[in-house]
């Protein structure tokens, strides 16, 4: 099955395991039983680790994933993560990080996770959606960038650089009054970039819904087609953010932001060269840099 189908089928994963159970081999039934009781743990286990825990071989785990209709264990794991990622409390996510036994392990696991997330993002990001998003940003009357809680870091980064390239870039800030007041003049000539990751902010969805009703073009930078903002977006840029801990990996989101900035910048190459020339003079005049 293709990637989109696999993601959509994650909602039926548990019932699918139950339906397939009578036809599974003895070893596969052990895996099924363990997943049904511990799917929140399995979502962040490697095939090897799951096999060791259950007492079967890694190849049995892979065949189990195939028996459920998945192209491989990573796709089954993606489906499990879709099931749980927005339901986990922070306390539960801390408990899941029990494999982070020491600082060296933490360093290696976190960096490897970020590498895997970037690789997964590169494989799955919609290139046509990216191209349209870039063009919409370039031609927008005004750009509103929204990211709440930890996502605000990505919003601020994207907004900082787009503001150098383009006019009328506005980062929606919670410390600058109500979010709705900041976008009350939004219309069909404007673009909203909504950055949202688990646990998804209810307020973000409400603000984006309002912008959509006013006719604005919505670009969502999120981790799942099931994310609330993705359901109303015109362009969905999916990024992996899996991290078996109480924080999410925002590295791929920053990478996609970099790509958007550079894409827009290259289309405005001559204009931004003149702009940067002016900035260099200002920076030198006021000793901004050492």
Automatic annotation (TrEMBL):
Domain of life of the native organism: Bacteria
SIS domain location: 133-271
Matches recorded under InterPro entries: Homeodomain-like_sf, HTH_RpiR, RpiR-like, RpiR-like_SIS, SIS_dom, SIS_dom_sf, WH-like_DNA-bd_sf
Domain HTH rpiR-type: start-end pairs: 11-87
GO biological process, one term: carbohydrate derivative metabolic process
PROSITE patterns reported for this sequence: HTH_RPIR, SIS
UniProt KW Protein biosynthesis keyword: no
Key words of the record: DNA-binding, Transcription, Transcription regulation
GO MF annotation, one: carbohydrate derivative binding
PANTHER family, alphabetized: GLUCOKINASE, RPIR-FAMILY TRANSCRIPTIONAL REGULATOR
Protein's name according to its UniProt entry: MurR/RpiR family transcriptional regulator
């Amino acid at each position: 099955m293709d990637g989109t189908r696999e993601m959509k089928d994650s909602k039926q994963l548990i019932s699918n395991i139950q339906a397939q159970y009578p036809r599974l081999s003895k070893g596969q039934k052990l895996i099924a039983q363990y997943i049904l009781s511990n799917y929140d743990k399995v979502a962040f286990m490697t095939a090897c680790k799951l096999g060791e825990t259950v007492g079967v071989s890694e190849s049995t785990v892979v065949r189990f994933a195939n028996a459920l209709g998945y192209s491989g264990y990573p796709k089954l794991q993606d489906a499990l993560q879709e099931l749980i990622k927005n339901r986990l409390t922070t306390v539960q996510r801390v408990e899941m990080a029990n494999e982070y036994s020491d600082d060296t392990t933490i360093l290696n696991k976190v960096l490897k996770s970020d590498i895997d997330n970037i690789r997964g993002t590169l494989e799955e990001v919609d290139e046509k959606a990216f191209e349209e998003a870039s063009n919409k940003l370039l031609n927008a009357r005004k750009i509103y960038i929204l990211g709440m809680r930890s996502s605000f870091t990505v919003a601020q980064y994207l907004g900082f650089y787009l503001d150098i390239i383009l006019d009328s870039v506005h980062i929606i800030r919670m410390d600058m009054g109500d979010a709705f007041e900041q976008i009350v003049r939004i219309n069909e000539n404007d673009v909203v970039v909504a950055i949202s990751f688990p646990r998804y902010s209810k307020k973000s969805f409400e603000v984006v819904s309002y912008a959509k009703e006013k006719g604005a073009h919505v670009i969502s930078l999120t981790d799942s087609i099931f994310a609330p903002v993705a359901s109303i977006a015109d362009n969905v840029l999916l990024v992996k953010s899996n991290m078996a801990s109480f924080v999410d990996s925002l590295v791929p989101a920053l990478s996609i932001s970099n790509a958007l900035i550079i894409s827009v910048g290259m289309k405005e190459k001559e204009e931004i060269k003149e702009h940067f020339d002016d900035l260099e003079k200002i920076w030198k005049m006021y000793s901004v840099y050492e």
